[in-house]
Structure to design on (179 residues):
C-alpha cells in the first residue's frame, strides 16, 4: 500500500489518535500533516518502506516533541519571577501593596513545594538553567525536572488564584481542575 492510499484510509484516524495525545484539534491536524510529510520524504528518499505503523510512530514522536515544547514554553512564560520583580519605586501605595501581596502569594506557594520541586523551580527561575542543566545538577532526568517545574507552577497558580479570591483557597474539582 502506498502513502496516498494510507492517507485516504487513515488520515482522520491518525488525527484522532494525535488529538488524544495532545488534547488539541488544531495541533493534532498540524502534527498529522507533518507526519505524512515526513513519511512522504522518507518514501521519496527510499530510506524506509511506508507503512501505517511507520506513520503512527512518526506522528507519536512528533506529538511527544510538541508536548515537550509546550512544557518548556509554559515553564518559561508562566509565573515568571521576573514579572514580579522588585517593588517599583514611585508606584502608588495601592500598587506597592498589591505587588507585595503577589510576592507573598508566590512565597507561600514556594513554602508548599517539596524540597526537590523547590530546588528545580529556583534553578529554573532564579538561575535560569535549562532542564538539562537542572537534571545534571540534581542528578535527575529531564522528565523529572519537567514534573517538578510543572508542579511548582501549579502551586504558584493556586496561590495566585487564592490571592485573587481574597485569601480563600479556590475550590478544586476532581482531577485538580478549578471550577
Amino acid at each position: 500500500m502506498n502513502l496516498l492510499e494510507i492517507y485516504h484510509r487513515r488520515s482522520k484516524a491518525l488525527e484522532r489518535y494525535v488529538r488524544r495525545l495532545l488534547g488539541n484539534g488544531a495541533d493534532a491536524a498540524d502534527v498529522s500533516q507533518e507526519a505524512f510529510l515526513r513519511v512522504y520524504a522518507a518514501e521519496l528518499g527510499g530510506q524506509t518502506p511506508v507503512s501505517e505503523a511507520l506513520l503512527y510512530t512518526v506522528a507519536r514522536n512528533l506529538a511527544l516533541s510538541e508536548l515537550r515544547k509546550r512544557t518548556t514554553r509554559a515553564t518559561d512564560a508562566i509565573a515568571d519571577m521576573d514579572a514580579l520583580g522588585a517593588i517599583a519605586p514611585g508606584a502608588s501605595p495601592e500598587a506597592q501593596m498589591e505587588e507585595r501581596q503577589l510576592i507573598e502569594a508566590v512565597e507561600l506557594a514556594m513554602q508548599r513545594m517539596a524540597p526537590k520541586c523547590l530546588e528545580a523551580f529556583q534553578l529554573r527561575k532564579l538561575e535560569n538553567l535549562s532542564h538539562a542543566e537542572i537534571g545534571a545538577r540534581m542528578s535527575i532526568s529531564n522528565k523529572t525536572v519537567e514534573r517538578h517545574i510543572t508542579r511548582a507552577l501549579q502551586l504558584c497558580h493556586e496561590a495566585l488564584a487564592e490571592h485573587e479570591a481574597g485569601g480563600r483557597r479556590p475550590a478544586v474539582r476532581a482531577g485538580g481542575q478549578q471550577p
